[in-house]
Amino acid sequence: MSKKNIISKLSGLKLAVLSPACWRTPPRKYGPWEQVASNIAEGMVKRGLDVTLFATADSITAGKLEYACNQPYGEHPEMDAKVCECLHISHFMEMAKDFDLLHNNYDFLPLTYTRLIKTPMVTTIHGFSSPKIIPVFEKYNANNDYVSISNSDRSDKLNYIATVYNGINTKDFTFQPKHGKYLLYFGRIHPEKGTWEAIQIAQKSGMQLIISGLIQHEEYFNEKVKPFLDNKNVVYIGNSGPKKRNLLLGEAYALLHPISFAEPFGLSVAEAMMCGTPVVAFNLGSMPELIKNGQTGFLVHNIEEAVKTLPKIATLNRNIVRQWSESQFSIEKMIDGYLSVYDKILNKKQ
Q: The pTM is what?
């Protein structure tokens, strides 16, 4: 069926989108799952679906908003995260009968309700925090539809209906035709994300490094990052919001992404390329799917290889970098993918 026919067929569909309750939707600063859930909800509203977003009370949407938690627990440490999570998810599932389709962006716990409801649910798996959670997905394989956010992030124990890459709003990222002079690390401060490795790459290349991100691992930050901060060569500027993110990504020479785990997607990689900024990433997880090696950045295996590739960044065409990101990681492309998924699911239930 053509895209136009699918949109016409699904127009007016009552869709419930479940976002996490850790951060506001969309997030003020950090919150990748919340950002993707927001992009899905807002994109579907524009396509004519009747969308209800389940998020915290301070969330923003062009659709309808339902909430059980007044504030996001990630911003209010006095809140009990588990209590908020249970209230939030149960509220979503208890209203299932009011919708034609549920779209879960909140991991595995909502799956445990699905044998108690009749409304079909699709779950976007935003990565596995641990192999220990896979048995829950496996148990509910038969009565759920799973979407992976990259082909690399799949378990052979699960059945998937599609892979849909995360989509970002192209208007939020300004194309910069000329590269800047600093290297950028943008992401949570955590061992698996490679903040220390980014510092080593910058120091060995003799370039300034700007670090922006949520400190998720305090001990790691204090031992492996903080000793190198001098407000000149290595600068930590905190957790940046959307406007600052756009400037940082666009004006960088390159984004450094020296991860040590099989990352399911990596929003900052797509966002940097949306600004025209190439990415140097360790070749793990979804990175070969996101980066066209030698055209939109470079896939490397260690610090030394990363340092050697940096001079080549200046030879890359930033227009091509932007065009690649637009063609693969726009909200429009993501929404097309999910509309096809919705159509398949509803056809199965008939």
A: 0.93
